[in-house]
Structures are given as C-alpha cells and as structure tokens.
Design a protein that fits this description.
With 66 residues, the protein is mainly beta. Strands 1-2-3-4 form a 4-stranded antiparallel barrel. The two termini are 13 Å apart.
C-alpha cells in the first residue's frame, strides 16, 4: 500500500519514508510512525509523518498493518 491517503496511515505502523534530503535519489528509510504531520485527507507525494526516532518524511510504502 502506498501512503497517499491519511486514513491508511496510523501511529504504530511500520513504514518506508523518503526523507527531504533523499527526495532526489528516492532512498527509503524504514521506521515506525509516531505522528502524522499532514492534515489533508490525501497528498500526491505521500502523507508526511514523524517516526519514533524523530526523522520526518513522506510515506512511500506501508509495510505492516495493525
């Protein structure tokens, strides 16, 4: 599942995100969602989240579903 719909992304999910500095290369970072930072229902580049380790990026892929 991609992370373009806010309703699909929840705290506690394991996701791959693309950090701001990795947008050109598309390098993915794996982590667990702590906070959702995008307020709109959808976003074409993925919902922006903060991971439990503090990194911020846009969800490119949802790996686990609770």
């Amino acid at each position: 599942m991609d992370g373009k719909k806010r309703s699909d992304v929840k705290p506690g999910l394991e996701v791959n995100i693309v950090l701001k500095q990795d947008q050109r290369t598309g390098k993915k970072t794996r982590g667990v969602v702590k906070d959702l930072l995008t307020n709109s229902a959808t976003h074409p580049h993925g919902i922006k989240v903060r991971l439990e380790d503090g990194q911020v990026g846009r969800v490119s892929e949802i790996l686990s579903s609770k």
